[in-house]
From TrEMBL:
The chain crosses the membrane at residues 29-51, 72-92, 98-121, 133-157, 169-188, 228-251, 257-278, 350-375, 395-419. It is found in: Cell membrane. It holds the Pfam family MFS_2. This is MFS transporter.
Length: 442
């Protein structure tokens, strides 16, 4: 399980620097405007809206002697690795909006080719309700450990030379590429792929109609919208934290350290929330985690510039609440795919996980595409030595209230979710009976 979960490391190790450090570094050190960066992020996420479901459908339909998921993961790893070289080791003479856009295009394509088949595979390792939470917990802990690892080096650099953005990028890039080389073989050898379920209807639906299923399944819609909202909250905080700590708090030496501190506690958050999910169910645990994050983000309005104590306490709390909604919602996707297969006879697990990936990427794009221009509209300038009080207060309000509102919406969307443990157990029993009846006798 640990070997399989290790593939979460390089993907997670790239995602957080892209959301947290890359916008600030490319703005401050390479001179790209916040508006241009926000537009590039939005465009690349919209590209993901096309690529993700295509990869999901094609992965479900892939048939090879290596399995349905492995060929996609290997191809994605190659693209992801090359794009990481371009993004994390840029030459100042080459950086331009076109350069950044092309590199982001490639890294999101490679990431999707790894992540969507990988998540679908993880949802098919076990069909048991709580065992799926355990599998996702391993992946969540691996991802949190990756984030911790990738933030250690920038934190050290901040203490020595907080303005050396290219050195920070190179340090994080080394972690991403090094972990990719190590973890891909470990994950591919961890488990055998279960054979594809025998379809009840052997006719293959057209690609376009298959993708529209993403928006017609009511259970999947609720999970996707809830994940979309929680990702907006997380990404708004991630995209602005460097600016908030540096400009509003006046503590540039803490810019990476606070995020590092958060993920120290984030490593243990996964098992804690898994235990909560075992006791009260997945959707109730997701609601509890989201409401906790609402309170934490509202409390940010009470922090005082230059004083670290309250911000440090809230960072610890954020770490302990970290990923609660993501963990439960990701575990719920495989359950929803089971319900869909029972109703329609078609196994669309990868397609459903592509939708989950799509909601996450869309949430990140919306957060960056709105939050950065919004703080700019308030007058905040990341390259200015000082900003006006009005600009700094605008930064505070967006940083605190944006995530709080998004997490509240996420909790409301998943409230009363009907697919609980007993219902899922019945779905699995009926699926196993039908699969046994459809399997030809030896």
């Amino acid at each position: 399980m640990a070997g399989f979960a290790s593939l979460s490391v390089p993907v997670a190790a790239a995602q957080m620097p892209l959301a947290v450090h890359l916008p600030a570094i490319y703005a401050q050190h390479f001179g790209l405007s916040l508006g241009v960066i926000g537009a590039i992020f939005l465009a690349e996420r919209l590209w993901g809206a096309i690529a993700d479901p295509l990869i999901g459908v094609l992965s479900d339909r892939t048939s090879s002697r290596f399995g349905r998921r492995r060929p996609w993961i290997v191809g994605g790893a190659i693209i992801f690795g090359l794009a990481s070289l371009a993004l994390f080791f840029p030459s100042a003479s080459l950086v331009s909006p076109l350069y950044l856009g092309a590199a982001m295009f490639a890294i999101y394509l490679g990431s999707a080719m790894i992540q969507i088949p990988y998540l679908a595979w993880s949802g098919q390792i076990s069909g048991e309700y709580h065992e799926r939470t355990r599998i996702v917990t391993f992946q969540t802990v691996a991802a949190a450990a990756a984030l911790l690892l990738v933030l250690i080096l920038p934190t050290i650099i901040d203490q020595l030379n907080p303005r050396d953005g290219q050195l920070k990028l190179a340090a994080m890039g080394a972690v991403v590429i090094g972990s990719l080389i190590i973890t891909v073989p470990l994950a591919l050898r961890a488990f055998t792929e279960a054979p594809a379920a025998t379809p009840v209807n052997h006719e293959r639906a057209p690609l376009g109609r298959t993708i529209t299923i993403l928006f017609s399944d009511p259970l999947l819609r609720r999970v996707l919208l809830s994940d979309f909202a929680v990702t907006i909250g997380q990404s708004t905080r991630a995209g602005l934290i460097v600016f908030f700590v540096t400009a509003y708090m006046g503590l540039p030496q803490w810019a990476s350290g606070l995020y590092l501190f958060q993920f120290v506690f984030g490593v243990v958050a996964g098992p804690i929330w898994a235990q909560i999910g075992y006791r009260i169910g997945k959707h109730r645990a997701a609601i509890a985690g989201e409401l906790t994050q609402v309170a934490i983000n509202l409390a940010l309005l009470l922090v005082v510039p230059g004083q670290i104590a309250l911000l440090l306490a809230l960072t610890v709390a954020q770490g302990l609440a970290q990923g609660s909604g993501n963990l439960m919602l990701r575990s719920m996707v495989a359950d929803v795919a089971d319900a869909h297969r029972l109703r329609t006879g078609a196994d669309r697990t990868a397609l459903f996980f592509s939708a989950f990936s799509l909601s996450s990427k869309a949430g990140m794009a919306v957060a960056v595409g709105i939050a950065l221009p919004l703080v700019g509209w308030f007058g905040f300038n990341p390259q200015a030595v000082t900003n006006t009080p009005e600009a700094l207060h605008g930064l505070l309000w967006v940083f605190a209230l944006g995530p709080a509102i998004a997490h509240l919406i996420s909790a409301a969307l998943i409230h009363g979710f009907p697919l609980h443990e007993a219902q899922h157990s019945e779905i699995r029993r009926r699926l196993e009976e039908r699969d046994a009846a459809l399997t030809p006798a030896e």
